[in-house]
Amino acid sequence: MAARAVDGPERDYGVVLDEQTRAFAAEVRAFLASALDADMRARTGGEAGRVERGREWQRRLNAAGLAAISWPTEYGGRSATAVQQLVFNTEIAAARAPEPVNRNAINQLGPTIIQWGSPDQRERYLPRILSGEDVWCQGFSEPDAGSDLASLRTRGVIDGDTMVITGQKIWTSKAQYANWIYLLVRTDPDAPKTRGISYVLADMASPGIEVRPIRQITGRAEFNEVFLTDVRVPLTQVVGPLHGGWRVARSTLSYERVGQSRTHRIERRLRSLVSLAARSGTPQAPLGDAAIEDRLVRFAAQVEALRQIAADATAAGIRGVSPGPEASIAKLLTSEVDQSMATFALELAGPAGTLERGSPGAADDGDVALAYLLMRAATLGAGTSEIQRNIIGEKLLGLPRDV
Ligand SMILES: Cc1cc2nc3c(=O)[nH]c(=O)nc-3n(C[C@H](O)[C@H](O)[C@H](O)COP(=O)(O)OP(=O)(O)OC[C@H]3O[C@@H](n4cnc5c(N)ncnc54)[C@H](O)[C@@H]3O)c2cc1C
């Protein structure tokens, strides 16, 4: 039976809370009540405004010790349990808090450095990830290396105690705002595909790095091409063994899948869908009609299941091992449910759903149209749905390997 939090406003998390978790829930609610002010709720300033808000929000979360609750306490986290993670996600979703600027580094790079980094690397990079002083982007994909990432061709040549990197990355989210990048580089071209790769951290201010934004279907330019020409990086910035970066990268990719499965976005989308449906409702049929109600109930059930799966998967990170193939289930289902909900919102809103922000009569001030367009990418980024299905088939169901 679901227990209700006793401190602060009541909320049903769908699980029984122990004393410590109740106190944690109250702490998170108190933090949100004071930190989430009008500035943080604003939607002005376009992409640059969002990034600035993300920086400030990250700073406030960190000041409250809430920037990375799933990280171990010794590295500035809270060693949060799955239930604490669930509580945190639920409160953040309900409050409609902005996205912290370093979400990807908190979800992916930090846990990777905790798992694979040297003590010096942990000391140098982790606190600045938490505070948002360093903003990171991920330089893995290349024009001919996406799903088949191990085909990457960016070269790293060792020259004394530095590596000289030349090549091209693509789809690098937030590279135009980041001051650091984590890269995969081929350092031993003679070794088998997955053996000669190194995982390297580079300062974006290094001579030889050029960023060119790519404009998307939404009109925004959230990702970029990154060109690297003779970029010199000290070997102390290699994470894990030299030439042995593939295993390190696999850890990052599994943390990334978990990160993509965090459910505050689908929780928020469910709320928006219900309020959209309610606007066409009548006292006899508050949500429009039975077919709409049926879709909403199904989405609600999926969101509830995913909330539990995602919280479990996130909390697994604190055990210091990267999540297993289960992370693919969480990523696959979350992105597909998210995409279906955005499509259903467009159906519900009708023509007003196609209007963009600022147009008179746009549904949810253009959010319906924006979400529909944004969600085209949900089943591609962090590994496509087909690739997640391959992983699930091979690793969990024992099916023959994809060739
Ligand atoms: C919004 C977004 C943000 C991103 N951000 C970053 C980032 O910050 N950093 C970064 O490095 N990358 C980023 N990416 C890149 C992302 O990781 C790749 O797009 C993804 O891995 C797919 O690679 P690809 O685009 O080259 O497609 P391809 O690998 O060329 O795939 C094309 C199609 O073929 C299918 N396919 C390929 N191989 C198989 C197979 N073996 N079995 C079945 N089907 C297959 C795919 O599922 C897909 O439908 C981002 C992508 C998106 C959409």
From TrEMBL:
Residues 137-231 form the Acyl-CoA oxidase/dehydrogenase middle domain. InterPro entries: Acyl-CoA_Oxase/DH_mid-dom, Acyl-CoA_Oxase/DH_mid-dom_sf, AcylCo_DH-like_C, AcylCo_DH/oxidase_C, AcylCoA_DH/ox_N, AcylCoA_DH/ox_N_sf, AcylCoA_DH/oxidase_NM_dom_sf, Mycobact_Acyl-CoA_DH. Residues 19-133 form the Acyl-CoA dehydrogenase/oxidase N-terminal domain. Pfam families: Acyl-CoA_dh_1, Acyl-CoA_dh_M, Acyl-CoA_dh_N. This is Acyl-CoA dehydrogenase. Keywords: FAD, Flavoprotein, Oxidoreductase. Belongs to the acyl-CoA dehydrogenase family. Its cofactor is FAD. Residues 244-396 form the Acyl-CoA dehydrogenase/oxidase C-terminal domain. It comes from the Bacteria.
